[in-house]
Design goal:
Elements: E1 3-5, E2 15-17, E3 21-22, E4 29-39, H1 41-48, E5 57-58, E6 62-70, E7 82-85, H2 95-98, H3 107-111, E8 117-119, E9 122-126, E10 136-140, E11 144-146, H4 153-159, H5 162-173, E12 181-185, H6 189-200, E13 205-209, H7 213-221, E14 226-228, H8 233-241, E15 246-251, H9 256-265, E16 266-274, H10 288-294, E17 297-300, H11 308-320, E18 332-335, H12 339-348, E19 354-357
Parallel strand pairs: 5-9, 12-13, 12-15, 13-14, 15-16, 16-17, 18-19
Antiparallel strand pairs: 1-2, 3-8, 4-6, 4-10, 4-19, 6-7, 7-11, 8-9
């Protein structure tokens, strides 16, 4: 079958091959036929080494498709079922799951160290234990979440990562209050979803911050009340909050420099929500006096900061009601053979979200 493979960490191009085989099918597993998958910035971060991932590997974790086969012991799924891919399934038994913090379950991360593909030359890993830039993939049954028939595969794919992450940051983690002021730094797919989450929560002012003009224009269409380049954030802070700072600031880039800007843009007693996934050697610093004196809440948000299954259902409900726009987030559609063009479009900021159709 065909798949897009990264041979070594640090390479910026994928090779589309037709000699890849999905492996590992057995008890507790399901085989999926991928129909659509989104290109998420985390895929690029794994390719560059910012996020740890064994190589060679197949990127992709934001996917949807159909169940081809189920292994022994799998319940609630049948061949032909429509599903989205959950790259971080909850085991239900670990301490995090028992506390209700299923987004912190480590079971899914453990899957990343087990190859679920092979080629004539050897094993191939799937990113985050999945790997959806392929025609078929074998995953744990918990990674295959049934979706209603009225949800298109491309919409389900977005809900599988970027939409859930962004909406959840605003709704679950920060719990944006109605009438509040919000700034969102970084307006790719996750940032746009954060903006939509803040709008759903009733924020009065939502300032989108991004260096790419097309993304700023998009942010306005999705609910931002204004959009500025990074050098315009200080002026927006002064105009909108009289210099006090925003009630909520979301960092959706994953870099310490933007996290520091976000911290400085947050009012005393306000909330900085860190959504972007960054590198292990990029350290964010605050001094002990400001940490105490300003009483700003620093809240990281992992995969939307809540139970992902409920978050999926909420996203579908909001989409059905017309309260969030998911179709318009897909600005580009490509075939698997065009994956490297899609990567370039993401790196330049031209694409908001790209759907790879298989």
């Amino acid at each position: 079958m065909r798949a897009a493979v990264l041979h070594e960490i640090g390479q910026d191009k994928l090779e589309v091959l037709d000699d890849v085989e999905a492996v590992g099918f057995g008890p507790g597993k399901v085989k999926l036929r991928v129909r659509a998958t989104g290109l998420c910035h985390s895929d690029v971060s794994a390719m560059s080494g910012v996020l740890p991932q064994p190589a060679p590997f197949i990127p992709g974790h934001e996917g949807a498709g159909e169940v081809v086969d189920i292994g022994d012991g799998v319940t609630g799924l049948s061949a032909g079922d429509r599903v989205l891919v959950c790259w971080l399934p909850a085991c239900g038994t670990c301490p995090a799951c028992k506390r209700g913090q299923t987004q912190l379950c480590l079971a899914g991360f453990m899957n990343a160290g087990t190859p679920n593909f092979k080629r004539p030359g050897g094993d191939v890993f799937g990113f985050a234990g999945t790997g959806t830039f392929t025609e078929e993939v074998v995953v744990d049954a918990g990674c295959a979440v049934p979706i209603p028939d009225d949800v298109p595969f491309e919409i389900a794919a977005l809900i599988g990562c970027g939409v859930t992450t962004g909406l959840g940051a605003a709704i679950n983690t920060a719990r944006v209050e109605a009438g509040s002021s919000v700034a969102v730094i970084g307006c790719g797919g996750v940032g746009i979803s954060t903006i939509q989450g803040a709008r759903v929560q009733g924020a009065a002012q939502i300032v989108a911050v991004d260096p790419v003009e097309s993304r700023r224009e998009a942010a306005l269409r999705f609910g931002a009340t204004e959009a500025v380049a990074p050098d315009g954030l200080a002026d927006a802070k002064q105009r909108i909050t009289a210099g006090e700072g925003f009630d909520y600031v979301f960092e959706v880039v994953g870099k310490s420099v933007t996290a520091r800007t976000a911290y400085e843009s947050t009012r005393r007693g306000g909330t900085l929500c860190v959504v972007g996934a960054g590198a292990m050697d990029d350290n964010f610093q605050v001094n002990m006096f400001e940490l105490f004196f300003d009483e700003k809440r620093i809240l990281p948000s992992m995969y939307g900061g809540g139970d992902v299954l409920r978050s999926y259902e909420r996203a579908i409900g909001l989409w059905r009601a017309g309260r969030i726009d998911l179709e318009s987030m897909i600005t580009h559609r490509v075939q698997l053979a065009e994956i490297n063009d899609a990567l370039d479009q993401m790196r330049t900021g031209e694409a908001l979200r790209t759907c790879i159709e298989l």
